[in-house]
Sequence to fold (458 residues):
Amino acid sequence: MSMHASRRQLLQSVGALGLLSLLGRGEAKGFRAMPWKNWSGAQSCLPAARVAPASEEQLAQFLRAATGAVRPVGSGHSFSALVPTDGSVLSLGNLRGMITHDAKTLQSEWWAGTPMSQMGAPLKQAGLALPNMADIDYQTLAGAIATSTHGTGPRFGSYSDQVVGLRLLTANGDSIDCSAQQHPEIFDAARCSLGALGVITRVRLQNRRAFKLHRREWVQRFEELLEDMPRLLREHQHFEMNVLLHADTAVAMTMDETKDARVIPKEPGGDVDKVALLQRVHLEWKNSPRIYAGMINFLVKHAVSFPEVIDDSYKVFANVRDVRFNEMEYEVPAEAGPACLREIMAKVRKNKVDSFFPIEYRYVKRDSSMLSMFQGRDTCAISFHQFYRMDYHNVFAQIEPIFWKYDGRPHWGKLHTLNARLLAPLYPHWKDFLAVRESLDPQGKFLNAHLRSVLGVA
Fold:
């Protein structure tokens, strides 16, 4: 298409490709695509194009034609700068839904642009379910895999660990189907790839039979919970706690499979009332630590209810998060979790850290993906949040060095300050991943500034 193509010709070309915008920056003089922002608003860019192919064939055609950088985007729920580019932002929003399922193998194949929130009901209809799910289900399947998004439970891995096969479209539009038996090295890299290898279009998952969960929540001193952690992890399939800053209490939660015929659905709504309560106390009493702690301990025990839930698993795992925030999460060895949390809470008290969101504390089973945060070790995941209208830089800077002391690996989708020099020693298969990336995308079509920094690619 020439620089002097008419508006009608441009629109006809776009329609023929089934894309949301033009293929590149120079297609129309003065043209700019719509700005992109992530969920929290902390990451943004003004790409040359925003595209959404309607098929794998159109995607392959686009990749062959694209001359600038291409960054895949899902729901925009990553907090790190994985997406921002001045090239093309590529959505798989038109490639969604279940492709097939197998009652014998308990496997299902999905288009990679499927939101996790749209997977539970079709799987239930097929008699299947995901073995575990994350705390939220806003992410697309491809995005959740790219960052090894996870739930909680020491016997359960991340979404990446549930993948048994996938299709990858490379920088030149070639299609590679891979699994543990077919292109196994690419498979081990692609299950957690940060979108740096190509575009995943199809994902085959290992499921299980559909099941129900019973969720219970209660308030307890977090030190007591840490002391009782071995029993809690042994007796419950899923455990997590949200530790309240500037206090000594936590909201603990267990989820266990049940044959109970009852259905006790979740109460409607999200976190807005609870977060507003924490925010009011923080603004009023943040300079009076003893009163602050007493208020939080009292309110969480007497002013907030935590009813039990019994329902289909996919309705229990995920929660509505209707208050935006920014997040830093590190994965430390499972045995180091309690010590790391204690040190973080001591720092919060000592420095009167200006934040009021609870710390999320979870466990995840080891896996074998090259760049998964859980590669080779059982893990404790500790997440620190900041309300989206409050600056996170100073707060996270006070907490992040504590994670480094405990050999922490940052969650790829969350905020951190590490570059390739500091990340490489944390991953035994770091060089193997870089070799796969170089073989699939030698020109760096799928890289942006953030990925060049964390992967060490010039």
